[in-house]
Structure formats: C-alpha cells, structure tokens
Amino acid sequence: MKRVSNVVTQLKEERLRQGLSQKQLAERCGKAQPAIARIEGGLASPSIKNFERVCRALGMELVVIPSLTPKEEVLKNHTESKNKTIRNRVL
After folding, report:
1. Of 6, 23, 80, 90, which shows the fewest CB atoms inside 10 Å?
2. Of 14-18, 47-51, 68-72, which one has max mean pLDDT?
C-alpha cells in the first residue's frame, strides 16, 4: 500500500499546485467530489482506470510497473494479512 499512498500524495500535491479544488478536479475527470476526497484521504482504493482518469485530468501520466514479487511471498503476505484480520475480529 505504500506505493499507492505515494501516488495519492503526488496527485494531491499536483492538484494543490495547480490551485484546483477537489470539486474542480472531480469535474475534470468525471468523478464526484466525495470520490476525490476518499482517494486523497486513503479511504478508497481506486482502480487503475480511475487513477488514470485523475492523472490525465491533472496532466500527469500513470505508469504501472508490474510487481516482481515471487508468488510465494505474495501468498505469505496475503495469509499473514488474513490471519491478522481474523485475530482482530476475535479480539
């Protein structure tokens, strides 16, 4: 998630640099203002398509780099995350 938060930070910084409100950005990319607020606040995990729409509205290009993480590590991290969620629900 750290990489996603870096992208979100860059998007927000660019929006502010251009002097745009969330509403103005939302209008440019065909989204609702609350959707932009959720993205910037880390409360939403937008699809790559929606990230791309926001980037284009800001005159930016989204470049996606495939993960080179070994499959075993991905599965391990997923299992650990799932177990943590289960533990939190039990507590």
Report:
1. 90
2. 14-18
- Cα separation of 28 and 4, whole Å? 22
What domain count does the chain have? 1
**With left for phi above 0 and alpha for psi between -120 and 50, is residue 7 left, alpha or beta?**
alpha
In a domain, 87, yes or no: no
Structure tokens at 91: 């507590």
Give the predicted TM-score (pTM) of the model. Answer: 0.66
> Could you give the CA distance from residue 66 to residue 84 in angstroms, rounded to a whole number?
26
35 occurs within a structural domain: yes
Residue 22's domain is classified under what CATH number? 1.10.260.40
pLDDT digits (tens, 9 = 90+) for 67-83: 665 666 656 665 555 44
Residue written as token pair 């800001």:
58
Distance CA 59, CA 43 (A): 24
